[in-house]
Amino acid sequence: MEFISLVASSFSLLFDPLILAYVISGFIIGTIFAAIPGLTATLALALLLPLTYTLDVTTALMACASIYMAGMCGGSITATTINIPGAPSSMMTALDGYPLQQQGKGALALGHAAIGSMIGGALGALLLIAVAPFVAEASLLVKTTGKFSLLAFAIVVIIVAQRGKMIKAAMAACIGLMLATVGLDAMQPVTRFTFGLSDLTAGLDLMPVIIGTFAISEILIQTSSSTDAKKAAEAFSKVAIKRRDFIPPLSAIREIGVVCYVKSSLIGYFVGTLPGAGGSMGSFLAYAETVRTSSEPETFGKGNPKGIAASESANNAVCGGALVPMLTFGIPGDPITAIMLGVLVINGIQPGPQLMSGQAELIAPMLAALLFSALVLIPLTLFLLGPYFIKIVAIRKDILYGAIALLAVVGTYVATYSFFQMMMALMMGILAYYLRKHEFPIITLLLGFILGPNLEEFLRRSLALSNGNPMTFFTNLDSLFFILLTLMFVYFLAIRKPLKSPITKKK
């Protein structure tokens, strides 16, 4: 209770104009970086890290918190408007956000994304404030075998969620897993599948793969489209977008339901507490669970607001969850919290079990800024800047996608400082283009690539600890729990309900 009171009193710091300016500026910068393909909130925080040296630790951490929250919700802007997620955590948002955009309901889709982000971010922050020490202990119960089963669960669920295309989804996931094996072996100092190219020693970087599979492939898809881009832009420019269009009607929010928002937020939060899981897995699992429990699963992937709400609630709740292992054990939950850990260490703050009690006055303002960003800055930013966000699609496609191609290529280089990785982004874009043309869901490819390294590492460690006995996955309770959960999802998604209307990304 003492820590909760300290967080509540920290809101008074936001009345300081200078601190408030840093928090708002951080949020806007994080939103812009998250929305532009190739530029992520992680990159924004990394570029602004030197600035934190000139600030006091409280102001620096509050600004970092606002960038973090903005980075999770900002990716939904381009995911909805042009089908190119600005951040990996918004990939599932694009499945239903872009179809709504094509139906002329882009403003409504962004409104649902903002409400989901607001609820998920706020619940994640509140849970972090209230139960951080307890959740940290619970997450430590998931050991090596359990982590493997959890990752396998995520891959299997997203495959079986592609109704009618499970074979193609499984093949795409296998391609992603294969690409993840390129480079140094996870357990031994030997290279694999580099074909003598020294540039592949470190493997494929995540940024080129994301930019290639979404940004480059989308540009190629749009280029090969027969639609008249100029006429489409002119038609949209005549549509009057008002700020109230971004506010979903109460009936639509009720239809989504409190259960969907809360359940998705809880999934995102608890996934976030697992180091390395990140917003992508949180949104994957929340989306799959929403499809599983829906009475109309065939509507997902065609513009169902529930899909947007589930994805955005989960990935923003991850913010609160990922800070739990970082603050209590010094284990970053994702790349952004790794940078925030650096800010703490630079300022002489040592994360650990005693942090919440010994230096709580330094941490409490950061959590207050996280909650403030979710409750106030997310809806306020959309209300003020929403009409400008939605106008992205009014830009002529040749100009828009030319600029995106340039930003994507430059963003890849800035993220990796490698010409080779920049070329790999182009190659991944061509591969994803042909996969999408043949209706392969590239979501499963990307999930396989993201989770592949950890999946292999935890599998080999588990077998090494058990002397090669695979029964270890059934004798450890944490692993057995996720195996049973996987079987339950397979039953409800692939066996009990008819296989029709695939949940796939539109071409």
From TrEMBL:
Q: Which domain of life is it from?
A: Bacteria
Gene source species: Marinomonas ushuaiensis DSM 15871
Supply the name of the protein: DUF112 domain-containing protein
Keyword Phosphoprotein in record: no
InterPro entries hit by this protein: DUF112_TM
Boundaries of every DUF112 domain copy: 20-447
Keywords (A to Z) from UniProt: Membrane, Transmembrane, Transmembrane helix
* TM region(s), chain numbering: 20-48, 60-86, 107-132, 144-162, 169-188, 200-221, 362-387, 399-420, 440-459, 479-499
